[in-house]
Amino acid sequence: MADLTIQVHEVNGVAVLRPEGFINAHTVRQFEGAMEAQIHAGRFTLLLDCRLLNYISSAGLGAIMGLIETVRENGGDIMLCSLQKNVREIFDTLGFTELYRVFPTEEEALRSLNGTI
Amino acid sequence: MRNPAEPESFRLVIPSQTRYLNLVTGMAKRASIVAGMDDATSAKISIAVDEAVTNVIVHAYSGEADHLVEIDLRFLPQALEVHIHHTGRPIRDNEVVLPDPREYIKHPRKGGLGLLLMSRFMDEIRYIETGEGSECLMIKRVV
Predict the structure, then answer these.
(1) Cβ pair A8, A34 in contact under 8 A
(2) Engineering a disulfide at A59: which of A25, A103, A105, B45 sits with its beta carbon 3.0 to 4.6 angstroms away?
(3) Shortest CA distance to A25 belongs to which of B50, B5, B65?
(4) ipTM computed for the complex
(5) What confidence tens digit (pLDDT) does each residue in B12-62 have?
(6) Is B3 a domain residue?
(7) Fold classified for A4-106
(8) Is A71 helix (H, G, I), strand (E, B) or coil?
(9) Partner-chain contact B113 A58, CB within 8 Å
(10) How does pLDDT run across A61-106, given as a tens digit for each residue?
């Protein structure tokens, strides 16, 4: 099994990325590339559905950090949903849950955007 | 034969390549459970080990793939010690500056978060020069 696979689909202009596995210094370029591809395609609202993400290190957090200004300057955002407990703890520890909107489920995240895209 | 005066331990030596990170973190997580940590603590230790080994590969060895990183886990009665040994550029305690998470949130940027995660997830971190190289020692106590 690969360290990381990323499924991507679009819902009403929102790019939903579902990483599965591990985001670390080895897989971070793949993760960053998947987000950048959506931005280059003009989709500036990204939802990271983390239900299958086992693990994210600072390399992955840095990749998200590196794109947040670009998407917000273009009227978009990076949101997260369905965080597993240990992944949630990493975000909480660094205070990232204040910087990003975090939702329990993909449906709730998408519902929060109704009428804003 | 093992010297009974020394703590039980085992050692993993990997090439300085990030493709081995998953192997190292998996081992660190299992070792933490053997040491008596719960699942949540074991997950934190594995993250701290990932960050420390990544620092060695990326910074101490500048990404050069033909060096070695030695991960030595020692099982003390009340703690797990993780010794990460390398022969690259040393990191000294006084060079380690932890970013302020509140500043990070105000001014998002890449980098600097690994050391912060290590410090939050482990009880003690020391950088040691051994004469044969450098070592990052991380200690997690069994509660």
Answers:
(1) yes
(2) A25
(3) B50
(4) 0.89
(5) 999 999 999 999 999 999 999 999 999 999 999 999 999 999 999 999 999
(6) no
(7) Transcription Regulator spoIIAA (3.30.750)
(8) helix
(9) yes
(10) 999 988 998 999 999 999 999 999 989 999 998 888 888 999 999 9
Total domains present in chain B: 1
CATH of the domain at B128: 3.30.565.10
Domain membership of residue B45 (yes or no) is yes
Residue corresponding to tokens 């040994």: B85
Query: Which residues from chain A sit within 8 angstroms of residue B50, using beta carbons?
Result: 24-25, 55, 57
Q: What is the pLDDT of residue B92?
A: 76
**Domain boundaries, position B108:** 8-141
Q: Choose the mutation target among A20, A29, A58 for the interface with B, i.e. most B CBs under 10 Å.
A: A58
Q: Which residues, at least 6 apart from B31, have a Cβ–Cβ distance to it below 8 Å?
A: B10, B73, B75, B80
Domain spans, chain A:
4-106
The pTM assigned to this predicted structure is 0.91
Amino acid at B128: I
Residues from chain A that touch B109, judged by Cβ atoms under 8 A, are 65-66
Contacts of A59 in chain B (CB under 8 A): 54, 114
Side chain identity, residue B41? T
Secondary structure of chain B in the HEC alphabet?
CCCCCCCEEEEEEEECCHHHHHHHHHHHHHHHHHCCCCHHHHHHHHHHHHHHHHHHHHHHCCCCCCCEEEEEEEEECCEEEEEEEECCCCCCHHHCCCCCHHHHHHCCCCCCHHHHHHHHHCCEEEEEECCCCEEEEEEEECC
